[in-house]
Amino acid sequence: MKHFKRLFLVLACFTLILCAGCKTETAYYFYTNVPSDGFEIADKNFVLGGIIEGYTPPEVEYPEEDVSNYTTMGYRFTAMLTDINLNVSYDFSKEGEKSRFSEFCRKIVDEMKRFDNAISTAVTYSDINKFNTAAAGDTVEITRTGYEILEIAKNLYSETEGYYNPALYYNIQAYGFGAAQAYPEKLSDLPNDEDVAKYTDLANHFEDLKTECREVENANGNTEKRFYVTKPAYTVEVGGETLSMKIDLGGIGKGYAVDRAEEIFDEYGYNYGYFNFGFSSMMFKSFVNGGSYTVAFKNPRTLANDYYFTTPVRNTKLSTSGDNNQFYIIDGTRYCHIIDPTTGKPVQTGIMSVSVVGGSAAEDDAYTTAIMAMGKEKAQEFIKDKLSDRKVVFTCE
Questions:
Q1: CA 277/CA 78 separation, integer angstroms
Q2: Which residues are 351's β-sheet partners?
Q3: pTM of the model
Q4: Which of 329, 324, 325, 386 is CA-nearest to residue 359?
Q5: Kind of pairing between the strands at 28-32 and 46-51
Q6: CA–CA separation, 239 and 377 (whole Å)
């Protein structure tokens, strides 16, 4: 790989680091569609299982810019119960530029809050909570943001053949994740197979969810667009209770927010820097010292900031999912927050982590979740057939 000044970013535990030795003692495999000259193996205990065919890198030309007077400013805040970190390199010595950066940060914060109000299950009046508390078959009005994210979710559900399914709400809760109060501690605390099957059956009716954009006349006599979602009429009985569908769009919602952040970077003419949303969804512009960042993907089987794979990134977005973020172990079996829609249970496919670089961050969030549930063989087929425009790497036990 060509030498250049590099900034290492470890995902999905975001830390700026210098090269550090890895201490993995167990051999793992990884699969990627990145050509061999486009990555470096940073941990000898990770073995390349195979190069997936089909990746075609985008052809992009970058104009020469004088960055000799550029300095870097950062900003941190919280939205959607998640820490957000942004970084911009620019000539802030120019009159008014520091004030303009402050304005930029305020706009980013306002946008993130708007998304939070649309899709967060922690916000009582959000679009998602309106949907979740509605009766089966009811239609509720939602915001344009909620509508757009639901449209993306529906398309990704179809494209991934249901491996991305935001309606696995009850399954997630049953296994102690999401808004559940505590993780199960022993086998008898886990949900029974009959209940899990019913939750999964309900989730598989996500395709029956309907969205609608209507043009209506407002009080001033002008025509405006309003947005609606209709909950599937299907219900299941669990423990004597009738359950209608509930959904959680937190995953792709964060990616959607990252996509919007990129647009705001462009509005302000910021071509150097990055935007990090909760360690797992990110946007990169160019790195002021060398053009490309080098992103380092974290070893999913260590608590340290050890990484196994590095690749250069520039003007792109990425997502990472793994069974090492939210999980517990009972009798030697790992249970994580990512649910396999074919079983309704936490994924047990042998895939430990997935990273996707390129395209839309909202889409990448869904792809990483779906690939975790696909298993090694189907994942490779999907990457070859559907993701030839993106870098993908996934690890296996």
A1: 9
A2: 396
A3: 0.91
A4: 386
A5: parallel
A6: 37
Per residue of the chain (397 residues), what is the pLDDT tens digit? 333 334 444 444 333 333 333 444 678 999 999 999 999 999 989 999 999 999 998 888 888 889 999 999 999 999 888 899 999 999 999 999 999 999 999 999 999 999 988 988 888 899 999 999 999 999 999 999 999 999 999 999 999 999 999 999 999 999 999 888 789 999 999 999 999 999 999 999 999 999 999 998 888 888 899 999 999 999 999 999 999 999 999 889 899 999 999 999 999 999 999 999 977 899 999 999 989 999 999 999 987 778 999 999 999 999 999 999 899 999 999 999 999 999 999 999 999 999 999 999 999 999 999 999 999 999 999 999 999 999 999 999 9
Closest Cα partner for 170 from 119, 122, 241?
241
What sections of the chain are H helices per DSSP? 97-119, 127-133, 144-159, 169-174, 193-203, 250-267, 361-374, 376-386
Using the CB atoms, write b or e for 116-128: b if 16+ within 10 Å: bebbbbeeeebbb
Distance CA 326, CA 178 (A): 10
At 358, list the tokens: 């390129």
What is the length of the chain? 397
Long-range own/partner contacts, residues 152-155 (CB < 8 A, 24 or more apart): 152/252, 152/256, 152/362, 152/363, 152/366, 153/247, 153/249, 153/252, 153/366, 154/206, 154/207, 154/209, 154/211
Question: In the beta sheet, which residues pair with residue 287?
Answer: 291
Q: Which two tokens stand for residue 124?
A: 């009582």
Token reading at 338? 């990512």
Give 115: exposed, middle or buried? Use CB within 10 Å, 0-12, 13-18, 19+.
Answer: buried
Alpha-carbon torsion, ordered 13, 128, 124, 246, to 10 deg: -90
**DSSP 8-state symbol, 287:** B
CA 156 to CA 370: how far, in whole Å? 9
CB atoms within 10 A of CB 233: 13
